[in-house]
Write a structure and sequence with these properties.
This protein has 312 residues and is of the alpha/beta class. Helix content is 32%, strand content 23%. Helix 9 packs antiparallel against helix 10. The chain is globular. InterPro entries: Carboh/pur_kinase_PfkB_CS (IPR002173), PfkB_dom (IPR011611), Ribokinase-like (IPR029056).
């Protein structure tokens, strides 16, 4: 086994207790009308958020994982810990505060096309800050990589993202970033903070829409070019069923996706991220890591359940 693969992968970011109503009957519409009652085939409750999703899938792939996020000192916070432990994810490094509510997410997934609507509440994620993270009692000598997820939703942390990434860089720890969807009302100052942060990481995992939004371009090739110009070493653009594009300073390669029946797209990007990081940290090339990541994402979308064992 590669030495790096035996080290801990530290996942940092937004964490939720999420309840999903699956295969919701809406008469073929991507909307809910007031005053009506809707029936779903089933429901699930799970720990969620980009950092949680990646941590959960990394554990399923046999990686050593630690998770840092923030929760309230409330009933949902306790429930979140229980759900995480049930998935094999250590919750001992979550920051606990009585000043905030644990973040919760309620989703409805439409039966006719698998699209979803999410309702989110609770201020814990937005209050996670730099000092919360670096004050955790972690043996960083045993950390091989850091995954940062959900940056665009972390209101207290976003201004310190360059400082946080530099903190890990100085300790020789690889940093991988997936900032998530760029909100419509995102300020130019925050967009520039994301670009600065991207230039400091070892791997950047946007989807096609996200990389075009953060670079303010409409063409993928132009967006990738602009990102490479700011100094990032590795860009992996997720393209759904079409696979992904892998860009390094020396070349750009498209890796075709796997064709599967799409049953549930929730969390496919996070499954991809976990698959890539697990292989890349084990010493595989970016191209081989991307092929495995395509396979993990394909297995995710081919299952109605969110959490699945991803050993392939």
């Amino acid at each position: 086994m590669n030495t790096s693969s035996s080290k801990i992968i530290l996942c940092i970011g937004s964490i939720y207790v999420e309840t999903n109503y699956l295969e919701l009957e809406t008469g073929g519409k991507d909307e809910l009308a007031g005053g009506k009652e809707y029936q779903s085939a089933s429901w699930e409750m799970r720990p969620a958020g980009s950092a949680v999703n990646v941590a959960t899938q990394l554990v399923a792939l046999g990686c050593k994982v630690k998770l840092i996020g923030k929760r309230g000192r409330d009933e949902m916070g306790q429930k979140l810990c229980s759900l995480l432990e049930g998935r094999g994810v250590d919750s001992s490094h979550l920051v606990v505060s009585k000043e905030v509510q644990t973040s919760v997410d309620t989703g409805v997934v439409f039966k006719h096309n698998g699209n979803n609507i999410q309702l989110v509440s609770g201020g814990a994620n937005g209050s996670l800050c730099y000092s919360d993270i670096i004050n955790q009692s972690l043996d960083l000598d045993n950390v091989g990589a850091v995954y940062l997820g959900g940056m665009a939703k972390q209101h207290a942390l976003i201004t310190d993202y360059p400082k946080l990434i530099s903190f890990f860089n100085e300790k020789g720890i690889k940093v991988f970033l997936d900032h998530g969807r760029i909100p419509v009302d995102f300020s130019e100052e925050k967009r520039q903070l994301i670009l600065t942060s991207i230039g400091l990481v070892d791997g950047y995992f946007p989807n096609e829409e996200e990389i075009c939004a953060v670079t303010k371009t409409n063409r993928l090739t132009e967006a990738v070019g602009r990102i490479m110009e700011i100094g990032v070493k590795l860009v992996i653009v997720k393209q759904g069923g079409n696979g992904c594009t892998v860009a390094t300073p020396n070349k750009i390669v498209h890796i075709p996706g796997r064709k599967v029946e799409v049953l549930n797209t929730v969390g496919a990007g996070d499954a991809f991220n976990a698959g890539f990081i697990s292989e890349y940290q084990g010493g595989k090339s970016p191209e081989d890591s991307a092929r495995f990541a395509n396979a993990t994402a394909a297995k995710r979308v081919g299952s109605k359940k969110y959490f699945i064992g991803l050993n392939l």
